[in-house]
């Protein structure tokens, strides 16, 4: 492709709208443009990368005996009501009526469509197992779209759905997808790790996320330093022991003027945070819930959501402290709190002698004891692990926490959807049984961003060769006829051999050409100038490590092949 | 692929929901399933055909120097308001608000997105020409979705947008797309003809549709028997002469009890239809319009819409005859009709002595003369041509009318969008000029249906080989070990040579296998039975013509190659 003809609007400066490096570089390298918040147009260079990732994904899905289909974006409300998720997705799901006032949504995922598709048609155990996949646009109206395609509202996903007669079959289908995912990310040139994950709105049993480690990742992952334990902090646990509350004394009310936070209390009372109770006022589907964790811990909202089986969980607003809790922000506590569910972290199960808010402005209570002064609905795991804690699996290593980008997520759904939606098959005895399902997603557009997060430097992108938009870029320097002719000859020869080649035939300064070639991150650059031609050589640069070397013109094609083979 | 594993739910009976053959066969051959009115899930076999058509389309677009992009489905209202089409599309466009109450639509087409994309970025004449294309899902909330994917609500289109500095450039870009379209349809194995077309809601100058002739086509096309004139009846003209109204006399009111239609009047008054005026009450964007055509002609609503530059045109409802026209259904006419625009077909320009409704129940007027008894706003072409009329181009041939399916549509848009949306470039003199645009669409999913309409028989589909989901199907008959082994061997060998092969390894009766293979329309079938194996032969059937022949086992691969080369 000639760069003079390619629609490639590169930018010299970082766009103000972009925070993370992949977002900046995708805009600067002319890969995409923003249409609206979280919605992008992919330009030729960007869409080439997407198509390459799709092709690699298809290959490994087909090799795993998954079959490609294409399911609708616009979906009827009926199937979502059948599965009982019509309300569960909340404002994340875009809903609208058609001209005949029938309710539809834009598919945020396709479990319902697949289950609906097979429920009338997969009749016998002989029709199973099946794995149907698609590469399709999804729409999720994120509350805070950000980081470019990392958290967009309209994005491309590869999603697959396995259908089995039993859980043993599901385990096999799940493993096949797990293996395929490892191959897909490896072939794309990405370092991705599988971690235990929360199942969230999908429901179901086991779940793994595939994470690309990167500082800009929105997820935190806990890794054991000793064994293979790895889990999203959303669900990670550790060998943190119960807190030893030795004190036991009478309840005491103390005046704490304007003392609202744990750290202010620590200073004022000279009591360590570990001896205090952090009481967090939450609203779960409109209902008041008080969550208690140790003063030194953080509430894990995902764990609380799962315990409550809530659709929507959020912190209480200022005015709700009075309305829903009959309390005061900064001074809330579990004692004398009526009509409010109280749930505590399991570390607090011997809670006594603790400091809590008095539900009255400028007052706290000391020597508080659960069971005596208030009742707790349950003690369960509600805290987030922290780096340095002991591994829950091997009990030897310590947990390290790293940031990661979720590029894949696989779920053992079980029979949740097939039971709700009546997707049964007849077993060998002619008895109706619910189909056992799994669901498997890869964020194709997000993967582009993750690849850039892992592969860039101050000059721009360093594409892994398997997903680079072009493999080779030729830079003719100057207007010398011989340079132009030789460059054209090399361009045509390499193209004829099947290489994907860009030639920068624009009438731009050498500096602009060098900068653009590095910005757009083509793995191998060949620079052709009059001086090097005189010496019968061409300068090659490997973008991966920015190493330059001279290759002989007479041997150019063989040298290119050799160099390219060594690039990762 | 093994049919025992393929998700291919074929149906023996025609589904009740399908009217036309392509719709019936796409359902019966397990290519797709209905999700909701006009919305389909494409199953593995159907999606393979779609992908083949997409691949052929991409090849010819790339060869024409068009560059592939991917533009959003969810589009902001702002750009549609800029182009002044936000209201023009009416209920065909699905609109909704996001969680922050911003207005969006689902893109029925992408002129606005492309114009918005380039308006800030294509700055110089040096950046042009450009042609950007995509293969993307479109959503149009059709009032009457029907015929399966022929008129769906969610469908796949290839759309391209050319950007030039001037009309000469546009002519070249348009011709390049015209040529590419001919190659695409030819390579898909379709007979398609280009016809002059109406520009409709796109606006602009020239326009051609590519039509696949088929009885189930929703469009009517007029062809000249002598020259190359071909036009959609929506815009076709003919050498129809003015009507000779020789009579001129006093206006006369006559009693015509319950006589409402032209044919009833013909009988009652013993006057030929050609001497009567057909007055059609229409409502254009809420305004009353009376359209007059000869009693023997039909009003062409597209031509009237274009004349009025209306967004929405429809026939008046029963109650609107009184409300908007102060008249009576069945007895409406142009005389004494106040506050109503009256437009007449050009054939009526000497109108006199005509019969029209009296705007009073059970009465008509005779001897009516335009200019004396009422005023006409304009005489213009408002009628539809009929078969047998003389060609407007060569004036020698006669027009034949055939049904067709529109599979492609190309438009010279000119500067309509760039002017409304401010997409300018700087010319060689540094002066801002609007970009000159063209737009080019192919209905990918509709093309699947059109291919079936052109290629089927009573047994099922007869795929053109370029878009067949598989090229070869192997039918092992019976449980004979030798048959199974030999079939497997042939299957593996043909696959290894790069053929796309299906093997019907299901434990079904021979009849079921034969029927399914014909239903799904694989171009070449190889039947392997124990008797033929003994003779060292295999039965081949060419689905195109259902011819059967024996080919020697020893020479099978060469024979397959030869047979396939001859298939169209």
Automatic annotation (TrEMBL), chains A, B:
Q: Name one Pfam family in it.
A: HGTP_anticodon
InterPro entries given in the database record: aa-tRNA-synt_IIb, aa-tRNA-synth_II, aa-tRNA-synth_II/BPL/LPL, Anticodon-bd, Anticodon-bd_dom_sf, Pro-tRNA-ligase_IIa, Pro-tRNA-synth_IIa_bac-type, Pro-tRNA-Synthase_IIa_type1
Enzyme Commission number: 6.1.1.15
Catalysed reaction, written as an equation: tRNA(Pro) + L-proline + ATP = L-prolyl-tRNA(Pro) + AMP + diphosphate
Q: Which HAMAP family match?
A: Pro_tRNA_synth_type1
Q: What is known about its subunit structure?
A: Homodimer.
Q: What is this protein called?
A: Proline--tRNA ligase
The scientific name of the source species is Halanaerobium kushneri
Provide the organism lineage as a comma list: Bacteria, Bacillati, Bacillota, Clostridia, Halanaerobiales
């Amino acid at each position: 492709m000639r760069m003079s003809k390619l629609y490639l609007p590169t930018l010299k400066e970082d766009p103000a709208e972009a925070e993370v490096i992949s977002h900046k570089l995708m805009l600067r390298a002319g890969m995409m443009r923003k249409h609206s918040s979280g919605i992008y147009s992919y330009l030729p260079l960007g869409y080439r990368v997407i198509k390459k990732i799709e092709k690699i994904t298809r290959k490994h899905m087909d090799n795993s005996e998954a079959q490609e289909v294409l399911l609708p974006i616009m979906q009827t409300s009926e199937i979502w009501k059948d599965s009982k998720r019509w309300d569960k997705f909340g404002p994340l799901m875009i809903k609208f009526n058609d001209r005949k006032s029938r309710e539809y949504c834009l598919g945020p995922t396709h479990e319902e469509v697949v289950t609906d598709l097979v429920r009338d048609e997969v009749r016998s155990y002989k029709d199973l197992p099946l794995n149907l996949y698609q590469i399709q646009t999804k729409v999720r109206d994120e509350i805070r779209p950000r980081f470019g395609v990392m958290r967009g509202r309209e994005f491309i996903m590869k999603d697959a759905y396995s259908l089995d007669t039993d859980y043993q079959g599901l385990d096999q289908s799940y493993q096949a997808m797990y293996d395929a995912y490892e191959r897909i990310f490896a072939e794309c040139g990405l370092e991705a790790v599988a971690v235990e994950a929360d199942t969230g709105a999908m429901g179901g049993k086991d779940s793994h996320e595939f994470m690309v480690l990167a500082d800009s990742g929105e997820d935190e992952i806990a890794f054991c330093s000793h064994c293979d334990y790895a889990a999203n902090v959303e669900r990670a646990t550790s060998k943190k022991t119960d807190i030893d509350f030795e004190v036991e004394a009478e309840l005491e009310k103390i005046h704490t003027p304007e003392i609202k936070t744990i750290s202010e209390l620590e200073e004022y009372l000279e009591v360590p945070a570990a001896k205090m109770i952090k009481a967090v006022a939450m609203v779960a589907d409109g209902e008041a819930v008080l969550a208690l964790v140790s003063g030194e811990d953080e509430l894990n909202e995902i764990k609380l959501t799962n315990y409550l089986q809530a659709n929507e969980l959020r912190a209480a607003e200022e005015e709700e402290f009075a309305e829903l809790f009959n309390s005061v922000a900064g001074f809330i506590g579990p004692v004398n709190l009526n009509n409010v569910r109280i749930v505590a972290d399991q570390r607090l199960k011997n809670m006594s002698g603790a400091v809590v808010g008095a539900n009255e402005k400028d007052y706290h209570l000391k020597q508080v004891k659960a069971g005596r002064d208030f009742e707790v609905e349950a003690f369960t795991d509600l805290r987030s692990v922290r780096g340095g804690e002991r591994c829950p699996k091997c009990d030897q290593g310590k947990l390290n926490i790293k940031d990661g980008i979720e590029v894949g997520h696989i779920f053992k759904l079980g029979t949740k959807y097939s039971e709700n939606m009546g997707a049964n098959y007849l077993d060998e005895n002619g008895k109706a049984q619910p189909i056992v399902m799994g669901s498997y997603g890869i964020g194709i557009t997000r993967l582009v961003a993750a690849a850039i997060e892992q592969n860039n430097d101050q000059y721009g992108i360093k594409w892994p060769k398997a997903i680079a938009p072009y493999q080779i870029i030729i830079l003719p320097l100057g207007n010398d006829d011989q340079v132009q002719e030789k460059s054209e000859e090399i361009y045509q020869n390499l193209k004829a051999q099947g290489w994907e080649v860009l030639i920068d035939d624009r009438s731009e300064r050498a500096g602009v050409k060098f900068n653009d070639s590095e910005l757009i991150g083509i793995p191998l650059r060949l620079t052709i100038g009059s001086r090097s031609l005189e010496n019968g050589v061409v300068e090659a640069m490997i973008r991966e490590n920015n190493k330059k070397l001279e290759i002989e013109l007479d041997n150019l094609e063989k040298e290119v092949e050799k160099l390219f083979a060594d690039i990762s």
